[in-house]
Amino acid sequence: MAPEVFRATGTDVNVVILRDGDALTLIDGGYPRDVGAVEDAIRLLGRRPEDVEGMLLTHAHIDHMGAIVAFHERYGTPVFTDPTEIAHLRRDHLEQATGKDFIPMLHKHGVLPWLVRIARAGATKKLALDGALVFPSDGPLDLPGAPAPVATHGHTSGHTAYHLPRSGVIVTGDALVTAHPLSKIAGPQLLPAVFDHGGPDTLAALDRLAELDADILVPGHGPAVSMPIAEAVELARGRARA
Ligand SMILES: [Zn+2]
């Protein structure tokens, strides 16, 4: 995506790897059965999963937790996320659409094949992680790639994006995506409403993104897009109104 910034793909979901010398930072971890794909991506970069120094979670939805939970359990790799999201990750509560939420949509084109695909990827697994940590500082973190958390609460109550000021990349998670199997449009957009828990907060989170100095958008779902983030936010707002 940019020097030392890489995107790996799981099942319709992105994982971001930051490299600094021998060490890596992992942002999100795909579905439970995407762990092998994340490990392959790390090996392609000439590194091992044990070389991940820290992991950042945008939000505690199952499609972003796979390698985060697996690596934490296997290697004790520390996980950092927003304080609110720590409880969500522990599954003190769940802010995620479940099977019954999709029943009214089953007649729509593509919904059933997508549900089958994500079930195979482990979407119905019960994952939780105890022991995630709060960000140790404000601003860029002392981790490979120096990612800076950006509170973008809305999609979930503690959703966080990660800004890479050195390379002008913004990792938006699910606060702003560029495609989704259940969306008919391509380009910067909010996720279909069924996935949202924040109501108006989801739109307010876009304000936080728009003020950043970034022109490469790497979303949780869909391809990366090169355009000023403020422009991407405008497009997403327009599409949300439509
Ligand atoms: Zn997602």
Automatic annotation (TrEMBL):
InterPro entries: Metallo-B-lactamas, NDM-1-like, RibonucZ/Hydroxyglut_hydro
Name of the protein this chain belongs to: MBL fold metallo-hydrolase
PANTHER family associated with the record: METALLO-BETA-LACTAMASE DOMAIN-CONTAINING (PTHR42951), METALLO-BETA-LACTAMASE SUPERFAMILY PROTEIN (PTHR42951:SF14)
Alphabetized SMART domains for the sequence: Lactamase_B
Pfam family, one: Lactamase_B
Gene3D superfamilies found in the cross-reference section: Ribonuclease Z/Hydroxyacylglutathione hydrolase-like
Domain Metallo-beta-lactamase positions: 12-221
